[in-house]
């Protein structure tokens, strides 16, 4: 059985990715920061379908917590699956901030940087010795790296950095057969940034070729598919999953 770690797996895209991966026969480690109950709901959903999962606390914005998290992962791998390694890492955890450049504070800037770029960088680094050869890393980025959207400059900038980092991961980890790709969602119906009101959703739907916003499971399905053996030759790519957003 392949095992995947999905950060920010208690809700939204992360929860969907975790559930879809489990449906594809993977064991799942989901992480949460402030929503242990939601994370346990995901674990329960997976268990009810015959899968196996565990929820672990992780603050991706706090690198000092990573050694303890790695130890917890190693313990759960041995306890639940009888393994000393895992196969896939999905760097998904994140949050939104809607602020024009003129009003962004240094604290807000640093917070977004820590979660969306610094965190994935050093979390991948510390977990790399536990990743099996032939594994894969998926970094969740954003369509805002391609389409400039007023109010999300820091968020989009760090997601853009994560896209570049993805290619470097593919380059440096290729000797172990580890692939690295990124997935860039467009407008999705989640709680990120406070969610979508009717007016904003209508605006985004009007800018999308398929005439609607996406659902979390439409991203989760792509994550699970990309991790499958059928896509083993896809590497160092950024895949936008946005229904044709501003084309």
Task: Give structural attributes.
single chain, 247 residues, seven-stranded parallel β-sheet, Rossmann fold
Descriptive overview:
With 247 residues, the chain is an alpha/beta fold. The protein has one domain: NAD(P)-binding Rossmann-like Domain (Rossmann fold, 3-Layer(aba) Sandwich), CATH 3.40.50.720. It is built from seven helices and seven strands. The protein has helices at residues 12-23, 36-48, 66-81, 106-127, 153-173, 198-206, 216-227; strands at 3-6, 27-32, 53-57, 86-91, 131-140, 179-185, 238-241. The protein has a seven-stranded parallel sheet, sandwiched between helices. Strand 5 (131-140), helix 5 (153-173) and strand 6 form a beta-alpha-beta unit. Helix 1 (12-23) packs parallel to helix 2 and helix 4 packs parallel to helix 5. The protein is globular, with a radius of gyration of 17 Å. 42% of the residues are buried. The mean pLDDT is 96.
CATH architecture: 3-Layer(aba) Sandwich
What does the average pLDDT come to?
Answer: 96
Number of helices: 7
Classified in CATH, the superfamily is NAD(P)-binding Rossmann-like Domain
SSE string: EHEHEHEHEHEHHE
Kindly identify the CATH topology: Rossmann fold
SS elements, strand count: 7
Strands ordered across the widest β-sheet: 3-2-1-4-5-6-7
Radius of gyration: 17 Å
Amount of helix: 40-55%
> Hey, roughly how much beta strand do the residues contain?
15-25%
Tally the structural domains. Answer: 1
Q: Tell me, briefly, the overall form.
A: globular
Reading off the top of the CATH hierarchy, the class is best stated as: Alpha Beta
Structural class: alpha/beta
């Amino acid at each position: 059985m392949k095992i995947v770690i999905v950060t920010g797996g208690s809700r939204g895209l992360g929860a969907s990715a975790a559930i879809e991966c489990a449906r594809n026969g993977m064991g799942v480690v989901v992480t949460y920061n402030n929503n242990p109950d939601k994370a346990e709901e995901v674990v329960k959903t997976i268990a009810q379908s015959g899968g196996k999962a565990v929820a672990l606390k992780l603050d991706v914005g706090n690198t000092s917590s990573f050694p303890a998290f790695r130890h917890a992962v190693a313990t759960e791998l041995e306890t639940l699956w009888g393994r000393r390694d895992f196969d896939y890492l999905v760097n998904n955890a994140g949050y939104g901030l809607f602020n024009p450049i003129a009003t962004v504070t240094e604290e807000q800037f640093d917070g977004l940087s820590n979660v969306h770029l610094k965190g994935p960088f050093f979390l991948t680094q510390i977990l790399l010795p536990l990743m099996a050869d032939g594994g894969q890393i998926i970094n969740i980025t954003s369509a805002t790296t391609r389409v400039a959207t007023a109010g999300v400059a820091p968020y989009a900038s760090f997601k853009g950095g994560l896209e570049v980092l993805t290619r470097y991961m593919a380059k440096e980890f290729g000797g172990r057969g580890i692939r690295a790709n990124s997935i860039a969602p467009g407008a999705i119906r989640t709680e990120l940034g406070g969610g979508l009101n009717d007016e904003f959703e209508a605006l985004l739907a009007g800018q999308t070729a398929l005439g609607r916003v996406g659902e979390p499971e439409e991203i989760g399905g792509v994550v699970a598919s990309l991790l499958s053996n059928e896509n083993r030759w896809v590497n160092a790519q950024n895949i936008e999953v946005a229904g044709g957003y501003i084309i």
